[in-house]
Design goal:
about 200 residues, alpha+beta, 9 strands, two-stranded parallel sheet
């Protein structure tokens, strides 16, 4: 979205419309605050006014994680960055906005998973089986780092860790994932399932 010097919205692209649920004509000439939840609504209005009055950029050019507000009133985690652009004697502000709900969900999932495993170990678990690592690999960009650190901790605690990875197989090609187990595991065993005479055998 682009803003004028007063913070009013001058353009609202399709990506922003999809995030917020507004049509462009519903937000044009309205203040940026309509897209933000409290207390960020008033905070960003004040910051923009302060910059125009003093020239102190402060928040400009930095990405911040705050809370946005959709057309239906629902709040959501938002990554917002505002930058100034000069067009001759005129200046406008470009607001880059990203819905980071999925990122937050992944962070919460990782936190809950690690907490669960840690608690199980504290309760005396001696074997941890992750079935399936494939799902985590498809959901998390940093799954290798996550499991490397977790397996290191489990090893220090004397816990045996077994990782199950689904590969291309009978009827389930979507379950495959490119996971380099040699980076994570001390030993790798491969089990092959195949059909013979109408039966699935291993």
């Amino acid at each position: 979205a682009t803003l004028n010097e007063s913070g009013s919205i001058e353009s609202f692209n399709p990506a922003a419309q999809k995030i917020y649920g507004y049509h462009a004509n519903e937000v044009l000439r309205r203040h940026l605050g309509i897209l933000l939840a409290e207390p960020y609504r008033d905070r960003y209005t004040a910051r923009l006014r302060q910059y125009l009055a003093t020239g102190e950029k402060g928040f400009l050019g930095t990405r911040q994680e705050i809370e946005g507000q959709r057309r239906d009133g629902d709040g959501f985690p938002l990554e917002l960055a505002i930058n100034e652009v000069r067009l001759g004697d005129r200046r406008i502000f470009v607001a880059s906005m990203r819905d980071i709900s999925e990122r937050r969900r992944m962070e919460q999932m990782k936190s809950e998973f690690i907490s669960t495993v840690t608690q199980d170990v504290m309760d005396g678990a001696k074997v941890v089986i992750v079935d399936s690592l494939t799902g985590y690999a498809r959901a998390m960009d940093d799954h290798v780092t996550l499991f490397s650190e977790l397996l290191s901790y489990l090893g220090q605690q004397g816990v045996v860790s077994l990782l199950v990875v689904g590969q291309h197989g009978l009827g389930f090609p979507a379950l495959s994932a490119q996971v380099d187990l040699s980076y994570l595991a001390d030993s790798v065993l491969m089990f092959r399932y195949y059909e013979f005479a109408g039966e699935v055998r291993k």
